[in-house]
Every structure is written in C-alpha cells, then in structure tokens.
Amino acid sequence: MPFPPPSRTPLGVPAGPRRRTLLASAAGAALLVGCTSESDSTATSSGSPSVAERTRARAASDSTGLVRQYDAAIAAFPVLAEHLSELRAEAVRHAEAFGGVEPTPTSASPSPSASASAAPPTEQDALAGLAAAERTLVDRRTKALLEVPGELARLLASVAAAGAAHVYLLTEGAK
User: Fold this and answer.
1) How many Å apart are CA 82 and CA 169, to the nearest integer?
2) 123 contacts 81 by C-beta, under 8 angstroms
3) HSE (CB half, 13 Å, CA atoms) of 34?
4) 169: closest CA among 87, 64, 66?
5) DSSP string computed for 9-54
C-alpha cells in the first residue's frame, strides 16, 4: 500500500514515508511475527523434549519444591501458618499451571533456613529462606522467557511477577 505524499514537503526532501515511519513499521512487523510464529512442538527432530517442554517441567518441579519448603516452614513454625498458607496455595496453583501436582503434606523437606549456624532456625530464618527460594525462581523464570514460545513465556512472566510479590510479602511481613 503506497503512502500518500505529505501535503507540504521541504525542498530537497523526497515525498513518501519517513525513516522513522519505516523503522517503526519494521519493528512492529518483527514483533508481530515473533508473537505469532510459535513452534511449540512437543519434541525436536531427534525425539528429545523441546525447550518449551523442558522449561515447563522444570518450572513445575521448582514450584512443587517451593510448596514443600512452605510445608516445612509451616510444620516447623505453626504460628506462621496463617501468614504462609495463601502464598503456599499460590505456589500449588503455579505448579499445577505448569503441569505439576501438589505434593503430599507429609513430603515436607527440612525447614528452609537462611542460617547455617549451629543455632536452631527461627521464624525469621524460615521466612528469609522462603524469600530466597522465591527470588531464585523469579530470576530463573525471567531468564527463561527469552527461550520459550509466547503462551509459555506469558505464563512464566505472570508466575515470576507473583513470585516477586511473594518475596516482598515475605521480607516486608517479617519486619
């Protein structure tokens, strides 16, 4: 589709689209192509899982592990149950969104402690350990955004944003 010439063109400037218009159109076209050309195949030609499959499985496993850490913190410090139960429920939903399943409450791992000293862990240590685990997952998921197709990238971005909010709630709630 030809562009109409501007109504007033300065002397020596050819009529037609300006460089900015062409650059903006090219950038927009590249974004549209990037968003619509998803090749989320279930396996590569060699039969191994695709990057998207591996990323989804890793994210599900990470979220399931995080649920276990929440369970361990709640088991070690029942007074934190009210504060942590909604964050735990979010982690369960994230695991399910990536295709994982909720772990059984009896499969809790040792208490997430930021302190490796001989002193017993405290509630603050448990919260700091959970915040660190959430932060690690936020970073991992944010990096993975560039390697996966659109829908999975949007899911990772959404879950990473929720994880960042969890970090805030865990650190600010501890103050």
Assistant:
1) 13
2) no
3) 11
4) 87
5) --TT--SS--HHHHHHHHHHHHHHHHHH-----SB-TTSPBPHHHH
Residue ranges in the chain whose pLDDT is less than 70: 1-48, 105-118, 173-175
- Which pLDDT value is given to residue 3? 63
Q: Return the SS3 of 101.
A: coil
pLDDT tens sequence across 115-164: 445 578 999 999 999 999 999 999 999 999 999 999 999 999 999 999 99
Contacts 24+ apart (CB under 8 A), 92-99: 92/63, 92/67, 94/59, 94/63, 94/66, 94/159, 94/162, 95/60, 95/63, 95/64, 95/66, 95/67, 97/155, 97/159, 98/56, 98/57, 98/59, 98/60, 98/63, 98/155, 98/159, 99/56, 99/57, 99/60
